[in-house]
Design brief:
3 strands; 312 residues; mainly alpha
Length: 312
């Protein structure tokens, strides 16, 4: 039943995409800002800011997931299934990721670098105004590989583990990390809980994602890049995902990036030739095959458990 619910949520996402109006995460973003205004003070000690950030995480991520668990406990039958599917549908962003990636690839392939820079700036946090074609391509491919884990496979993993409350908890925690999990002076202490808990929740699904990329691509290259290059990345979870993904595609990523006007050198990831605009579509296909692999594995596990239960 879990595999079927995953399929239904993915079909709903494919057909409808993210809600154009009244998306719950938009309202959640407003709530995050209000909670931060109430809890965070520049005058607080580092310890007080850490405690305030942890309290904010409990209020904004743990409490809604617990409330959803209570609501679902009162439902049964098809009503429960519908509720679970709707929550998972809102927690994943596969179609949105694909649309944004294709919106970068199309102008790149048409030679319109300015438009490609603008489009890629909508999905990455780095400065894109000075990127050349190779830089735009790398940024887009890296976004597909990393967000394929964060926005698609990780919610599916937590849905399989803990149902809709698990998927909701992960999605809200990931959103809080995107808002607070920076190593800037403003969020260094206040955002520590959000960053650490997102790393914790992402640990297993990120490595399963990296393994999946390898299994459906260049496995030897993916495993070698994962082993040798991932430890050099700043993120303990994005490193394995992007290194294995680049290795699976037999392309090279990394290199110079610009954040707030300052150059930062990303470690080399992958192997083989430099990434090309057509590799954006190849990265999307890699993600889709990884999704199918997860669904097949989940279905086999459920059928195996049902068979064992029937024999007992």
């Amino acid at each position: 039943m879990i595999a079927l619910q995953m399929v239904l949520a993915l079909v709903l996402d494919t057909l409808c995409g993210e809600p154009r109006r009244w998306h719950p995460l938009v309202g959640f973003g407003v709530l995050v800002g209000r909670v931060e205004t109430r809890l965070r003070r520049d005058s607080q000690t580092p310890r007080a800011q850490q405690l305030a950030g942890a309290l904010g995480w409990l209020l904004l991520a743990a409490l809604p997931a617990l409330a959803l668990w209570g609501v679902l406990a009162m439902l049964s039958g098809w009503l429960l299934v519908v509720a679970q599917v709707l929550v998972l549908y809102l927690a994943i962003g596969n179609r949105s990721l694909a649309e944004h990636a294709r919106a970068v690839a199309a102008p790149l392939l048409a030679g319109d670098l300015a438009r490609a820079r603008h489009r890629v700036g909508m999905i990455v946090s780095r400065d894109t105004s000075a990127l050349d074609e190779a830089g735009v391509t790398r940024a887009a491919v890296e976004s597909v590989l990393e967000n394929g884990s964060d926005a698609v496979l990780a919610p599916l993993f937590w849905f399989a583990v803990a149902g809709a409350p698990g998927a909701l908890l992960y999605r809200l925690a990931n959103t809080l990390d995107a808002r607070w999990g920076y190593r800037s002076q403003k969020y260094l202490h206040f955002g520590r809980a959000a960053a650490r808990l997102d790393d914790l929740l992402n640990g297993i699904p990120a490595r399963l994602c990296a393994l999946s990329y390898g299994l459906i691509g260049n496995l030897r290259g993916a495993l070698r890049c994962w082993r040798e290059q991932a430890p050099q990345a700043a993120s303990p979870n994005a490193g394995p995902v992007m290194a294995a993904g680049a290795g699976a595609l037999s392309i090279r990523l990394g290199g110079p990036s610009y954040y707030h006007g300052r150059e930062e050198w990303r470690p080399a990831l992958g192997c083989g030739r430099d990434a090309e605009p057509r590799d954006i579509h190849r990265a999307l296909h890699l993600l889709w095959r990884a999704i199918v692999l997860w669904l097949v594995v989940m279905l086999c596990l459920e059928l195996g458990l049902a068979f064992q239960g029937g024999r007992a």
